[in-house]
Give the backbone structure.
Amino acid sequence: MDITLVIPLFNEQESLPELHDWIVKVMMANNYSYEILFVDDGSKDESWAVIESLAKSNPAVKGIRFQRNYGKSPALHVGFEAAKGRVVITMDADLQDSPDEIPELYNMIVKEGYDLVSGWKQKRYDNAFTKNLPSKLYNYTNRVISGIKLHDMNCGLKAYKNKVVKSIEVYGEMHRFIPVMAKAAGFSKIGEKVVQHQARKYGVSKFGWNRFINGFLDLLTITFMSKFGKKPMHFFGLLGTFLFLLGFGFAFYLGLSKLYHTFVIHKVARLLTERPSFYLSLTCMMLGSMMFLAGFIGELILRNSTIRNTYLIEEKLNLNG
């Protein structure tokens, strides 16, 4: 199968028939073998009934329905698990992503060898203040922290090699950082394509301002996990050792200074407990000890984890001979 389209949705009954017909038109024009996988994230309208109707008329239409609303990341996760196509393309169900972009995205994966291609909505039809400006700040922060030079990391229109979506686990609200997870898994050829952004035709946006705050925190989490997930002691142990030695060194200096003033120059010096620097040094030693122990506990937890020796293997040669 050439293409699997994974389309998460929530209350999009008006747009689904039009989106389906548009996708089918593109597939037929390019002679692709395909499946359309709608993932209904607990819709309260008639979205599932529409999907059932489409599936009756088109065997390529498949559906997964959640009991309640879990979010876009879980919807993508189950969609990725079920995807069978050589290339997996995700798009939103609100008609703001154009299916006409599919052939070029497919060719960038198959012919140009990209692992992942992300859409870039260079010209947007969203509200400039409530969505466009925060989105630009958000993407700039992503580029600085992750090192991935994408202008629109959160664009719903993306294309992947099948093995990419099978190698990453999308959970929580981590769908915004799939390129970061893919890079951490070893898929480094990540591209970008300018795509057409359609004005919303039906319904209203399902996202609010909180996604930018949550997104920043999630980015820190995924960045930390990708670098230190299998070696927590390298982060906590190093930082803890540094803080402990810093505090211990300063406390040692204060102690020598006290002895010097008392026994060498016979001058009455302040008690160590009267000096704020003494408490700062104690704080550094305590924090250092706690961080070192955190790293040690992290290593113990990892030792008993089922993923401690899980690695992605590209290929094997002559192992059965």
User: Anything to note?
Assistant: The chain has a mean pLDDT of 83. The chain has two domains: 3-228, 232-303. The two ends are 32 Å apart (CA to CA).
